[in-house]
Amino acid sequence: MLIDNHNRTINYLRLAVTDRCNLRCNYCMPSEGIRFAKKEQLLTTEELCKVSELMVAEGIDKIRITGGEPFVRKDLMQLLRFLAGLEGLKDISITTNATLIGPHIEELKELGVTNVNVSLDAIDRENFKRITRRDQYDLVFHNLHQLIREGFNVRVNCIVLDGQNTDEIIPMLQLAKEFPVSVRFLEEMPFNGGSKSFDHIRWDHRKILETILAAYPDYEKLQSPATSTSVNYKIAGHKGTFGIIPSFSRTFCGSCNRLRITAKGDVITCLYGKPKANIRDLIRGEDSSEAVSRAVRQAIGNRAKTGFEAQENFDTVFENSMTSIGG
Ligand code: SAM
Predict the structure, then answer these.
(1) What spatial distance separates the first Cα and last Cα of the chain, rounded to whole Å?
(2) Which protein residue has the closest C-alpha to ligand 1 atom 9?
(3) Tens digits of per-residue pLDDT, 77-91?
(4) 27 lines ligand 1 (CB under 6 A)
(5) For 62-113, how does the pLDDT look when each residue is reduced to its tens digit (9 = 90+)?
(6) pLDDT of the residue at 181
(7) Which residue's alpha carbon is at the smallest distance from atom 21 of ligand 1?
């Protein structure tokens, strides 16, 4: 088992497979993109498989594949096929913008991948185009509906963006009304590749909840797993649920069970902290298995208690883009 220096068990790995994305969401990166990693800087599929296997041997039982956009990577299914056969791995999840997942839905089902988080910040076509800077609305909705129809456990993640989509909060809940999905609203964070900086947000978790409850006063608060980052609710008469994630307010660090490994092999033990190690050279070197496991164990033994503590020692934290970190 992986236990950190604050006695938190780490069993959840967010594994980024690329930093590239086919969208250009304006709160994530500038329109021209960021300085993306070169191919040789990325972990190969073989290396991603090996890292996953090592982490599962250490006690990770949930892996979320993220990016960049995971499906931009042509060899993604090879990794997923490997993960599906990995004993001890109970949960394979994917976070995606749903533009490229369509042709893979059938096989994902066969592999037993059931949890798919779809990032979607607008129901309105023009607003979607403006925020993502790409014209992919029809494709995203087509794939989203197909995932729902095929019985995937779909969570729709919507970042609440001051001045951009706050009037979409209530329309977005229409998805939870009609379908058995969880619509989750997340606070914006300043990981946008330097596009804009801020040290407080107007649309925090309280304001989001107030807005929803003013429109839907008949709701119930749901029990959530102890490690859940979202506080979850059900509105009377809705097939699905909604949740709110205080990702900027950081009220959930006490139960954080996450480890991040980026596409370049950086080991990140807190979203707001510096990478604690890099495993790319280790995995390409001698005694690689032991070296990688040791580096991760050391990183986990030296974790900040909270995101605020992690940020204290990292002045340039917000120069980064979420596309490099994996969300
Ligand atoms: N491409 C995939 C997707 O769209 O879900 C996975 C990677 S994306 C970086 C992961 C998540 O990070 C998405 O839900 C995205 O909305 C979120 N994200 C990106 N920039 C963010 C920011 N500045 N604040 C909050 N969330 C952000």
Answers:
(1) 24
(2) 323
(3) 999 999 999 999 999
(4) yes
(5) 999 999 999 999 999 999 999 999 999 999 999 999 999 999 999 999 999 9
(6) 98
(7) 28
Tokens 């979320």 found at? 64
* Ligand 1 and 186: CB distance under 6 A: yes
Atom of ligand 1 nearest to the CA of 66: 6
pTM for this model (two decimals): 0.96
Structure tokens at 172: 């977005």
**Tokens 């050391």 — which residue?**
298
243 close to 252: Cβ distance less than 8 angstroms: no
**155: CA distance to ligand 1 center in Å?**
13
Per-residue pLDDT averaged across 184-189, rounded?
Answer: 97
- Distance from the alpha carbon of residue 14 to the mean position of ligand 1, in angstroms: 13
Task: Give 35 Cα–ligand 1 centroid separation in angstroms.
Answer: 17
